[in-house]
Recover the amino acids of this structure.
């Protein structure tokens, strides 16, 4: 069986090479996460020498693109963590929809799954002036995000999640079939604003009532996580809501928030911090 052996210290040149070709600082990511990603790609290319892999990476823009994309992990399936989504749909959205102007943010969107979750679950009155801000790290991500179509394999992957939703019983409640493709039923009636932005490289110029940043902090070093949490906190309105992943915590920023519901990674920013 083919096996590549690298250590964390060995990948610095690879990280610097990625940075030079993409202008993204991949040193922000966890060393072990970066090492795992590089090993996966080196093994897929059947290259056992790191200098040889770097040489191949230097010559191949396609490989560089795919490796860079792999650092910004896409959600594996729609409607993951139904308990949290049910709480948003039943308890949080009805209160948010009472605002005269509502702003929601997805600061890092790759495959569009989190966007689709909100488009389906946020069943809002047409009178609400709402905008959903969607940021993506690479310009090539936008086509995937906006395409918003799914196939039978995607439906099979999320079937169990859908069955746990309070708003739906089966995939037929969620999707409209058009030929061999499926389009999610859109209940969010607000505006969509797409923006090319990397969360740890550019500051946010808007403030939001709800920010969804699930299952992303776990891939960053602690210093980068704190930097990102500072950016997210600054981007929230007083008493704004921040949704993280199940295994993620606020760390040093916990004093700035209150837990909304015990057992869920949903936090409300304190009015005065």
């Amino acid at each position: 069986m083919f096996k590549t052996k690298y250590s964390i210290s060995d990948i610095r040149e690879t990280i610097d090479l990625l940075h030079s070709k993409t202008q993204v600082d991949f040193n922000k990511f966890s060393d072990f996460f970066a090492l795992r990603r590089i090993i996966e790609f080196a093994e897929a290319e059947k290259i056992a020498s790191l200098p040889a892999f770097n040489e191949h990476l230097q010559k191949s823009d396609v490989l560089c693109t795919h490796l860079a994309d792999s650092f910004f992990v896409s959600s594996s399936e729609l409607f993951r963590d139904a308990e949290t989504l049910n709480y948003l749909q039943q308890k949080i959205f009805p209160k948010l929809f009472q605002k005269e102007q509502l702003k929601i943010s997805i600061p890092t969107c790759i495959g569009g799954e989190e966007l689709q979750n909100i488009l389906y679950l946020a069943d809002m009155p047409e009178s609400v002036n709402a905008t959903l801000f969607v940021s993506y790290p690479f310009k090539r991500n936008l086509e995937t995000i906006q395409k918003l179509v799914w196939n039978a394999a995607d439906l099979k992957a999320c079937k169990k999640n859908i069955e746990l939703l309070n708003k739906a019983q089966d995939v037929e409640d969620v999707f409209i079939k058009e030929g061999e493709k499926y389009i999610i039923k859109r209940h969010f009636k607000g505006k969509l604003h797409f923006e090319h932005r990397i969360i740890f490289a550019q500051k946010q110029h808007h403030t939001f009532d709800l920010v969804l940043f699930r299952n992303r902090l776990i891939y960053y070093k602690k210093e980068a996580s704190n930097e990102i949490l500072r950016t997210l906190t600054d981007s929230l309105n007083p008493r704004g809501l921040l949704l993280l992943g199940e295994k993620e915590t606020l760390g040093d920023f916990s004093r700035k928030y209150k837990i909304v519901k015990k057992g869920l990674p949903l936090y409300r920013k304190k009015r005065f911090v």
